Amino acid sequence: MIAKTTGWILGGLCAIMLAGVEGGVAQVEETGGIPPELVAEYIHAVIQADRSIYSTHVVEQLQGRKVTVAAEDWKERGALPLPAQMLQMAGQEVEGLGLGLRIRLTSLGPIYTKNGPADQFERVGLEAVAKNPRKPYTGVMTEGDRRYFKAIFADRAVSMACVMCHNSHPLSVKRDYKLYDVIGAIIISFPIR
Ligand code: HEC
Question: Structure pTM?
Answer without folding.
Answer: 0.85
